[in-house]
Amino acid sequence: MITRFGSLYAGAVDLEDYGYEATPVNDRWLSDEHLATVFEKSEAIAKLMDERGYSTLWFAEHHFQREGYECIPNVLMLAVHLAHLTKNLNIGCGFNIAPMWHPVRLAEDYATADILTKGRVVFGVGRGYHTREVEVFGAPMQDQNANRELFEEQVELILKALNQKSFSHQGKHYTVPPPVPYRGYEVHEITLVPRPMFRAVDCYQPIVSASERGLDFMARMGMKGIMGGGAAIGGASERVARAWQETLARHGRETQLGGDLIMGLTIQIADSEEEAIREATPYYEEWVKMFAPLGFVRGLNEDQIAAAADPKKARSGNLPTMKDQIKAGSWLVGTPEHMVETLLDIQDRWPGLVEVNVGHPVGTPKAVVLEQLDRFATEVMPAFLKRSSEKQASAGSVAAG
């Protein structure tokens, strides 16, 4: 049963123009002052979500994005700050990019944030996807196998550090601790100081390619997943969710479909589907421009990717439309009633699903994000929070009887 709602904000500042005819992505170079508005925008989103009863606001770690699309380099520092501005909202790491960290330092920083926020930071790690980011920090990104191999060893080491009273690690990339003399003895194990307030630490990872190796690693490490899409019956997300459920079962974790998963949906609420599509299309087109060259707009050929980057060619480039995304299930648009109906259908088909993230394309203006999150909280969420309360009350009555 869906009982919690969150949102992912990847750190895009408001842009001056949007859409295929607007400024090409590679031509955007925003001022330092403009890029820094990401923090004021983050504060505004966090405060509204806290007031409206959302569960978790997720942020993504990114670097060097002078274009303005993903501008938060340190999620944990921001999480500590926002925890002092809110009362109940959790702050999710969606995600810390492990190959850009030393794994023990990342574990230490999370443990510190966990204590300072009294357990309101949700831990998450990813492999990264921007070559400009990951390779600058000395880790592989073009070599996907090397990236995955490094990431897997890092995650193993991070979880040891967070969950064990003392630990050691010997691998291809790390020897922790090195066997060095220290105050009259040789070091063979170390302890994370401080350790997290709450153990064992839940760790989330994005499910993107859903490869057998990737899912198996996540299950073996006791991790949980966040995935996009899912509203389409029989769509790619449903197939991925079933693969995840089967993988968990092989590792002794029996779940209903949707268990240990958070589903992410891009939303646009309006008084009709046509109005929602019209309002969101410029932001959708900006998303295509940004992510088509990175492989996140599936099914595009080289000519279509090139067209998306050229304001003069995009309209004739046979690019996918918002309606294609709606059909695939990654976008949920229209009236609040339609959203409730769709989410109830998802809940019926995914009985293990507890949490749904609702978000917006990169660059969506702050005012639009706030209006949409406010409207979703007041016109959609109550239908699910009421059902959750009724179920808890019913369970309590049965137990009392």
Structural overview:
The protein is an alpha/beta fold. The protein has a domain at 4-94 and 207-387: Alpha-Beta Barrel (TIM Barrel), CATH 3.20.20. Helices cover 43% and strands 14% of the residues. The protein has helices at 32-35, 37-52, 75-83, 103-116, 131-134, 144-163, 212-220, 236-250, 273-291, 302-308, 322-328, 336-349, 366-379, 381-400, and strands at residues 4-9, 56-59, 90-93, 96-97, 121-126, 169-170, 175-176, 181-182, 185-186, 203-206, 224-228, 261-269, 331-334, 355-359. The strands form 3 sheets. Strands 1-2-3-5-10-11-12-14 form an 8-stranded parallel beta barrel, surrounded by 6 helices. Strands 6-7 form a two-stranded antiparallel ribbon. A two-stranded antiparallel sheet has the order 8-9. A hairpin with a 2-residue loop joins strand 8 and strand 9. Helix 4 (103-116) crosses helix 6 (144-163) and helix 7 crosses helix 8 (236-250). The longest helix is centred in the middle third of the chain and has 20 residues, at 144-163. The protein starts with a strand and ends with a helix. The relative contact order is 0.14. Residues 230-234 have low confidence and may be disordered.
Q: Total number of helical segments?
A: 14
Report the mean per-residue pLDDT as an integer.
93
Outline the low-pLDDT stretches.
230-234
Portion in beta strands:
5-15%
Shape, principal axes of CA atoms: globular
* Largest sheet, strands/sense/barrel: 8 strands, parallel, barrel
Please report the distance between the alpha carbons of the first and last residues: 24 Å
Q: Number of DSSP strands?
A: 14
Q: What is the H/E string?
A: EHHEHEEHEHHEEEEEHEHEHHHEHEHH
